Hints:
With 369 residues, the chain is of the alpha/beta class. The chain has helices at 10-26, 38-42, 59-64, 66-83, 94-106, 126-133, 144-149, 161-167, 191-205, 223-229, 256-263, 276-285, 293-298, 313-324, 326-341, 348-368; strands at 2-7, 31-36, 46-50, 87-91, 111-114, 136-139, 155-157, 182-186, 212-216, 235-238, 247-253, 268-272, 304-307.
Amino acid sequence: xxxxxxxxxxxxxxxxxxxxxxxxxxxxxxxxxxxxxxxxxxxxxxxxxxxxxxxxxxxxxxxxxxxxxxxxxxxxxxxxxxxxxxxxxxxxxxxxxxxxxxxxxxxxxxxxxxxxxxxxxxxxxxxxxxxxxxxxxxxxxxxxxxxxxxxxxxxxxxxxxxxxxxxxxxxxxxxxxxxxxxxxxxxxxxxxxxxxxxxxxxxxxxxxxxxxxxxxxxxxxxxxxxxxxxxxxxxxxxxxxxxxxxxxxxxxxxxxxxxxxxxxxxxxxxxxxxxxxxxxxxxxxxxxxxxxxxxxxxxxxxxxxxxxxxxxxxxxxxxxxxxxxxxxxxxxxxxxxxxxxxxxxxxxxxxxxxxxxxxxxxxxxxxxx
Length: 369
C-alpha cells in the first residue's frame, strides 16, 4: 500500500507518525509519502514538504503567504499524480487539505481525514465540501461524531489521540538542581505565534523568582530561535516533554497543548494573541465562546483564557498567582477529571489504521473482480 499523508503543523506530524507505525503493523511493505517533519521521517515516511513552509495561523498570515500556499498546492497536485497513491490521509490543516480532497476525488483516490476541521467554530460552509470529497472522517472530540454524522459524513470517534500518546509517555522524575518547583512555558509550534507570545511569558516569569521556568520548544524549530528570544531571562530550554511530569503550572498558547496539560493534571493559564487584522476577522466569524479545548469540552471556564489585549504581563502574573494557590489548583484538577472521561480509552491509532487498511483491501479485491 502507498499512503500519501499531508499535515501542516507539528501535532499533525506527530499523529501522522503514529498512524504510519500502526499501518506498518498491518503491512510492513507499506510506503509513505509525507508532508510533515521529523516525527513522520523517523517512522520511515518520505518527506516531500517540510513543516517550515506549511505552518500559517490567522487570516492575515494566510493572506500574506498566499503565493507560497499556491505553490504548495501546485506541487501537491503534481506530486500526487506522479505518486498515484492508494489513499490520501489528510491531518487537520483544513483550508489547504480541502482543496487536496477535491483534487483527489478527480483522480479517484480515496480520502481519509483525521482531526476534523472545526466547522462548528467557524466556516460552517466547509462541511458541504467535506461531505462531497471525504470518504471517511476520524474526529478527535466526542461531540464531533454526532455533529458530522448529521451531515451524512461517514464519521468515526475512537478517542482523542493525545490519550494514546501520553499513555505511552515515560514518567521520569525530573530533579531540578536548584530545588525550585518548575513552571513550563508552551508558546506554540509556529514561529509567528511564538514571537508574539513568548516575550510576554518571559516578562511574566521575572515576578516568580522562587520558581524555575522552562520553555518547551517545538521539535521543528531550531534552538537558536528560542535562544535569541530569551536573551536576558533565567529560563531553560527543553525539547523533551518528559519534564512536564514535574511541572507545577503552565502558561500555554491555545491549542492541543491545553488538553495535553489537562491529561497530565497541570494547572494552566491559556493565552493567545493574533495579528490585529486576523483578530478582527476571528471575532466576526467565530461562533464559539471559548478558544481552549479544555473549556470547549467542559462548556464552561475551567482555565482562564487571556486573548489579544488581555494577553499582557499584568494579567498573566495575576492568572499564574491564582493557579499556584492550592484551593484554585484543586478546583481546576477536579474539573480536568470530568473532561478527560469524555476522551475515551487508548487505541485510536490502531482502530483508525484498521478501518483505512480494511477499506483499501476491499477496494483492491473489488478491482480484481
